[in-house]
């Protein structure tokens, strides 16, 4: 247990940095690691992905809150945009947790990996028109919020992988997009976590120290590492060149997507 908690803590430090730097909740890194860890611990295969996603979202509640506060202090959160998107984000997050429980484990994992690769491609391809006056209407923001909330709850992320490219293409500079994404990560994580807690409440065969599908020891250790490192990421995002920041963001998504989908595809390629 001490070794496991130490690994969770180290991962939390990385997650906090990523949350502040890219406006993501860290689920893109957390979910693959947690799947591997839960499999190593012998958790039931049928719920490993669900537990990884639920646990990831639970940590994002705290990490995204710290990141949001740090961005807000620097004036990088456009609160009118946040207010317009929150209702759709919450609705989508609840729906996403229900959908996720119905998906086969391997399909669930492949969808997550392909989703990351697509977002990375979109981010690099767009070239980013960010920095112009934002031109996203209320209806478009609300519709996008439902989709972002649903996808985020399904794959256990804070939404930054979708929110940042969407807002940047809509005219926001990347620093503002990251700030808004951090703020939206809070309601995504809260609604998604509650959904997974309720869905797993009566599931038989859960490991010890769980709340629904949420693994509490992992949450505690990860948050302990992520909280002090989120402000470090926020400080970096206001100093690094925008182009380099986007390149790093895309690389993180590509590496994570390939790492996650490879174990699922390898047995198929051997046949």
Question: What topology does this entry show?
Answer:
Layout: H1 2-22, H2 27-40, H3 45-73, H4 79-102, H5 105-126, H6 138-155, H7 160-169, H8 174-199, E1 210-211, E2 214-215, H9 216-237, H10 242-270
Antiparallel strand pairs: 1-2
Helix pairs in contact: 1-2, 1-3, 1-9, 2-3, 3-8, 3-9, 4-6, 4-8, 5-7, 5-10, 6-8, 7-8
How would you describe this structure to a colleague?
Helix 4 packs across helix 6. This protein has one domain. The protein starts with a helix and ends with a helix. The relative contact order is 0.22. The protein has 271 residues and is an all-alpha fold. The model has no long low-confidence stretch (mean pLDDT 81).
Q: What is the CA–CA distance across the termini?
A: 37 Å
Average pLDDT score: 81
Compute the gyration radius: what is it? 17 Å
Number of strands: 2
Q: Which sequence of SSEs, written as H and E, runs from N to C?
A: HHHHHHHHEEHH
Whole-number count of domains:
1
Estimate the strand proportion.
under 5%
Q: Main beta sheet: strand number and arrangement?
A: 2 strands, antiparallel
Poorly predicted spans: none
Within the largest sheet, what's the order of strands?
Answer: 1-2
How would you describe the shape? globular
Helix content: over 70%
H/I helix tally? 10
Structure characteristics:
single chain; about 270 residues; mainly alpha; two-stranded antiparallel sheet; 2 strands
What's the short story on this structure?
The chain has helices at residues 2-22, 27-40, 45-73, 79-102, 105-126, 138-155, 160-169, 174-199, 216-237, 242-270, and strands spanning 210-211, 214-215.
């Amino acid at each position: 247990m001490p070794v496991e908690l130490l690994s969770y803590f180290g991962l939390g430090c990385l997650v906090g940095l990523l949350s502040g730097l890219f406006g993501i909740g860290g689920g893109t890194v957390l979910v693959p690691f947690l799947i591997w860890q839960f499999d190593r611990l012998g958790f039931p295969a049928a719920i490993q992905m669900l537990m990884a996603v639920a646990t990831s979202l639970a940590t994002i509640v705290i990490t995204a809150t710290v990141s949001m506060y740090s961005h807000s202090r620097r004036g990088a959160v456009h609160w009118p945009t946040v207010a317009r998107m929150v209702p759709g984000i919450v609705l989508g997050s609840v729906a996403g947790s229900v959908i996720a429980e119905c998906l086969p484990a391997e399909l669930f994992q492949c969808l997550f990996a392909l989703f990351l690769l697509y977002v990375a491609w979109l981010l690099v391809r767009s070239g980013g028109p960010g920095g112009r006056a934002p031109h996203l209407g209320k209806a478009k923001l609300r519709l996008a919020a439902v989709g972002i909330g649903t996808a985020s709850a399904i794959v256990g992320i804070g939404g930054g992988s979708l929110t940042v490219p969407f807002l940047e293409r809509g005219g926001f500079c990347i620093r503002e997009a990251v700030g808004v994404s951090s703020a939206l990560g809070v309601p995504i994580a809260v609604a998604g976590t509650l959904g997974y807690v309720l869905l797993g409440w009566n599931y038989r065969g859960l490991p010890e120290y769980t709340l629904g599908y949420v693994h509490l020891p992992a949450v505690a250790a990860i948050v302990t590492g992520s909280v002090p490192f989120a402000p470090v990421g926020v400080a970096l995002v206001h100093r690094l060149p925008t182009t380099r920041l986007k390149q790093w963001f895309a690389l993180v998504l590509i590496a994570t997507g390939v790492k996650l989908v490879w174990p699922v595809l390898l047995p198929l390629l051997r046949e």
